[in-house]
Sequence to fold (481 residues):
Amino acid sequence: MSVTDRSHRELHQQAAAEAARRYEDSTAERERVEGRLAAGVRFPDSPDALAVRADRILDRGGLSPSAVVADIHREAMELPDANERIIDLSNELQAWSFLPRGVRAGATVARITRRRDGRELPHGTGFLVSPRLLMTNHHVLPDESFARTCFVEFNAQVTADNLPDTVVRMELDPQSFFAADRGLDFALVALAPTGEGPAPGETFGWNRLSVQTGKLVLGEKVNIIGHPSGRLKEIALRDNAVLVRLDDFVHYTTDTEPGNSGSPVFNDQWEVVALHHSGVPKKDDQGRVLRKDGRPWQQGDGDDAIEWVANEGVRISSILKHLAGLELDPVRRTLLAEMGPDSGLDQAMSTAPVLPAAAPGAPPERTAAVPGVTAPPVPGVRVTVPMTESETGAERPRVGLRARSTAFGGHRHLVFLHGRDQQKKFPDELRLSWTAGLNRGLTLASMPTLDPQDVWFPFYGTRLHDLVSGRESTAEPIGLD
Fold:
């Protein structure tokens, strides 16, 4: 059933009401955080959270190594203080790459516009999270039928010379993929291919979402790019701070407007940490929403008249965990897996239940578990992601990895050697995680970091385990033949 204009407004208002309830319920935590901020605590989060955040900043090249070394070696610091200082530096000192990386992130953001009664009305914001998938709010795109009335506009912005950029329109393709959840207020929809041209993400780039922790701590700054009130693309920088982190949501103070619904919330490394979905309206003792002039807000006053006290975003990790549990046919599973390994969906999809593809010509089928997700095969969809073990029947190879021939000028080699208990693990994942650990130390030592592709990784864990297990407790010699 299609969503009417009235029910769409009700969805928007319901999202704001639920955000206000969570804001009220978290008052004690917010006041604790604000009190510690006022007392001079820069990041009033747990030591574990600070350590994970500092590690991620160093792993992702979020700081100049020389700046880190010069600052934390200037005076003796305990580890918690050093972690806090690393996070603070990432807020204060931005490498030149902060600007071009922000431009690159902004290119993935599009304005969602709706066709109605012969008019085109700006409706919200969305952003690319894979070569073909766009993320926004459920209250922006509640169902497939509503999505068919909308299109997206990339480059709806001004250039560096303050001249209108060349807008690129693309149609939504909810038949190929559509998933939404009202509780987490997100929607994920495919974009229609443009003939034989490249996928949208290959043209505008796309955001690699990560299910891992360490992307944000309390008191840290966030940046939002979107289309407030349907205007050309704008960015909110610096005048903001994360106040409260809930299980599925995060509250922050950022200058946004209603058209920002569906905007990505970035940290300073331009990783998406949340999906912006609602402002938090100020209410009186009777629970009535208040206007900026202090009077009770009424229908017809418009969202611009409301006194907004904070903003709320949906945590990306919660959305990814929800997507991992969806029951999808193989084609849609492949589209979801294109979001990349950091999302955790390529591995989750290999173990998630698989819906059978419908027979040719069969009508779309729906499942109770995933409202709005259809299961027919989609003609013309190109599969670009390698098939999983469960789909091919073959086991993912666990063999050693060669380094690039150009590594270290082709004259030297770096080799990682592992010990016991590595059986049945994947060499490519081990090489990535080991290189990340080494790069942390290199960064702190103000030395150049390494590319995992330049490291040799011989792998013999499973073979060694098979040879040794069952015989290591005996007195017999073990022949490593």
